[in-house]
Amino acid sequence: MSEPRLERYRQRFRSAPVGEWRQALGSFPFMNQVWTIEPDHTGAMEWRSGSGVLRSAFEWQEVGDYHIRVRCLEVADGEPTNEAEPEEREPDPWIDLRYEFSLGTDGDLPGVVVLLHEVGRAGFWWSEDPLMLRGE
């Protein structure tokens, strides 16, 4: 029999993992990743460390059950950009992500939590570690 929390996640996020996620297994408090996947098919990922925040914007498309396509739009390091000299560049190619959920532990919390990761990988896209839904 499947664990009820795992089944709830599988139903809720069948078409896309929309929500705010954080890097799991990162028990070092000065380094973390926060992923925001919006229902309007945009998103952002922030790498937070003692030296600052690096933000990356992306867009995504639904492909099928537990399958989205993503591409990076821009990366910003928190410094103001020079709008007088816009950078012309081709958009990044689309990347297919097939994802799944599993039960695991997080270095910051006791007990078992639900983790988001790519099929066949421990991490999710740029993250080496799985993600967990914030506030759960």
From TrEMBL:
The protein's name in its UniProt record: Uncharacterized protein
